[in-house]
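Q: Can I borrow your eye for a moment on a structure tokenisation matter? Would you mind producing a protein record, from residues through to fold? Write it directly below this note and I will take it from there.
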Amino acid sequence: GYIYAENGASVSLENVVIESESLSVFAYTGGTLTLKNVDLSITSTSNPVQNYGGTLVLEDVTASQAGDATTAWYSSAIQVINQIVYDSVAGKWQVVSQANTIIESGSYTGKKAVMISGGNVTINGGTFEGSEAVIQADFAPQNYLDGSNYESVITINGGDFTGTVKASKAAKIYINGGNFDGNFDVFAGFIDRILFYTDRRSRLKCGAK
């Protein structure tokens, strides 16, 4: 099942505990979803928090993806992706609504704590842990008509991160703060995609992709 906001609607959830096999909360195209002091525990193949082309604000949220999600698409605590449509004339995808996510605080765990496939994520605080990746940012730019909107852009101002940070050539990660226990694995030749504003470059590990 789903709880979602779309098409200009604003939905706020506060002081709620949700335990489910597959319930997800959505910020959908043009909608705004705000979660404050919400506990989401998912035990099956679904992402507990998702943003598909909307605005999502998280504060003191606990989100865990504890199921055995064999499909990578459903293995993250938070998933962010632009809303896109296929242009059959041009033969490419086009962004119709950009996903914007702000994480103020909380705890997020899964195979991937945060997975972003186009859109903007700002992390100001919180605890993040991913067994495969604490943050994974990807998507190939050649699939889109509008090159200025395709990218996954993550700005980290604070927080505690356990696991590997993975970024493809279609992603940028700005690190202004935070504590990192793990490696940085970025597309070979695109080391500049992770931009450090503090002295963490010694922790950088370039993957062999």
Q: What stands out?
A: The radius of gyration is 16 Å. Confidence is low (pLDDT under 50) at residues 188-192, 197-209. The first strand starts at residue 2 and ends at 5.
